[in-house]
Amino acid sequence: MADMTLSSAAVGATPKMPLPERGRTILALDLGTTTGWAIRGYDGLITSGTVSFKPGRYDGGGMRYLRFTNWLNEIDRLSGPIEAIYFEEVRRHAGTDASHVYGGLMATLTAWAELRGIPYSGVPVGSIKKFLTGQGNANKRAMIDAARARGFSPTDDNEADAIAILLWVIETQGGLA
């Protein structure tokens, strides 16, 4: 199973935002070897964390994607049913490996969602950064600091980005797919 860290805004912190409408379970993802995730459950509770899909020493090339599929199934079972998925839409990657991993995870995610009839949408990186920090080119530290200013405790920039995507959906899209 994938390594996963978890944090929650509801435990010991109050996010500085209006309470989200209850009833729709929304998953937000920052896809990568370390995937950041944030989910607003049907009860309005926002939970976030990271999960690693780093391949093991003896893993074949597809194992990361099978583990990602299993993780999606588990999140859907425990917190779902997921009614909408939003992910960071990356148009430029620093390296070839990162590009391949992102593409594989995105293909896995969209196929998983299509099979279940779950709507999904990419959110441009600049939109996420501008929404949370006011700057479309904010660095990783600024994203983490901005998420913390909202009452969350992200462990890294991947989780901060996922939180930003979820907050963007709730605050600009009315929490709807």
How is this structure best described in words?
By secondary structure, this protein is an alpha/beta fold. It has one domain: 2-Layer Sandwich (Nucleotidyltransferase, domain 5), CATH 3.30.420. Helices cover 41% and strands 20% of the residues. It contains five helices and six strands. A six-stranded mixed beta sheet has the order 1-4-3-2-5-6. Helix 1 packs across helix 2, helix 3 crosses helix 5 (157-172) and helix 4 packs across helix 5. The radius of gyration is 15 Å and the shape is globular.
Helices and strands in order:
Elements: E1 3-8, E2 26-30, E3 34-40, E4 46-52, H1 63-79, E5 84-89, H2 96-116, E6 120-124, H3 125-133, H4 140-149, H5 157-172
Parallel strand pairs: 2-5, 5-6
Antiparallel strand pairs: 1-4, 2-3, 3-4
Helix pairs in contact: 1-2, 3-5, 4-5
Give the gist of this structure:
With 177 residues, the chain is of the alpha/beta class. It is 41% helix and 20% strand.
Properties at a glance:
alpha/beta, 6 strands, Nucleotidyltransferase, domain 5, 177 residues
**Overall pLDDT score:** 86
Distance between the termini: 29 Å
Number of strands: 6
Q: Which blocks of ≥5 consecutive residues have pLDDT under 50?
A: 6-21
H-E order? EEEEHEHEHHH
Second CATH tier, the architecture: 2-Layer Sandwich
Strand order, main sheet: write it out: 1-4-3-2-5-6
Instruction: Assign a percent range to the helix content.
Output: 40-55%
Would you tell me the structural class of the helices and strands?
alpha/beta
Total helical segments: 5
Shape designation: globular
Total count of domains: 1
Most strands sheet: 6 strands, mixed
Instruction: Please report the first level of CATH classification, the CATH class.
Output: Alpha Beta
**Radius of gyration, whole Å:** 15 Å
β-sheet strand percentage: 15-25%
